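Here comes my example:
=====
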Amino acid sequence: MPTCTALIVAAGRGLRFGADLPKQYLPLAGQPILRRTVEAFLRHPQVNAVRVVIDPAFRDLYDRAVAGLDLPPPITGGPTRQDSVLNGLEAMAGHPPDLVLIHDAARPLVSHADISGVIAALETAPAAIAATPLADTLKRGAEAGGGIRSDGTVDRTALWRALTPQGFRFAHILPAHRRGAGLNLTDDAAVAEAAGLPVTLVPSDPDNLKVTNKDDLARAEKLFLAALGDIRTGTGYDVHKFTDGDHVWLCGVRVPHDAALDGHSDADVALHALTDAILGAIAAGDIGQHFPPADPQWKGADSARFLRHAAEMVAARGGVIAHVDITIICERPKVGPHREAMVARVAEILALDPSRVSVKATTTEGLGFTGRREGIAAQAAATVRLPLVMG
């Protein structure tokens, strides 16, 4: 089977969008557009690796967007998309794949079938791109009296919209891009055509839209969530007793206290409860099944690893975490002063927008083991959306 690398072009600034940050870093159903795009290729069994080309000025945004994903360091882009693609191809030249799929970061709705179709076409062609035939009647416009009038109908027969991914045999596209440097061509298929390479059109899902403006983003979110109609809810509960120490870990935040929590890992009772809630939502057992407390490798472990593992299991099923809610039950320490940091840390671990993370605290009015300050309990709920095709 040929090796295949996906090259995600994410170096643009998206000036037409009018946002404060490049559009590829804006949230789509709670996670950055770029992450949605990258995950689509990471999940595909015929894609061996994913490389991302970025503007280094936004490296912090990139790192947050792809946190926890198995990716090599990003590649520095150039002043134009064509320059950025060439930089990406040159970065792979030392250990080239057989095939490369070049894809716009702002097309997060690319389907498994579209990726498979382009790869399949490369078995017999040096270049193949996802495309859709034009369905609307086309008019040629002309200035007239301060407005624009129709100056005739354009025959749409044999006209197609070029989408991405655009796939190529690596040995052909790299020299084509080198020869085409400076020509200011609009897509990689044009680069291939300029080099004399035949390009196969692969019928694609018309919902494989490019997010160019805010209306596109709203439509993309609607389409994305419509495909995730299997809505699940899971709950989790955990308890840890106090022991000697000077701090506790809660929601991934180190909180000073006159005691520590006793546990095999870092004893973060809140993250343990949330991990169980997410695992419960996808019917994947509990935290102890995935990270046995008797296993010495988890002694003192950061509980963020457990939570991230649960999130990765959701992503592997093509799902998303829509919302999480944590309630910490204790008399001391006070959670309020640390709540904002806790929300931010959970959101970071799960790659969620903070608006999708809730952290609350309550006491038991002096009743029970928490009221006697013998330990801390936590309960959590998680809402997960999975594709309807999942059981």
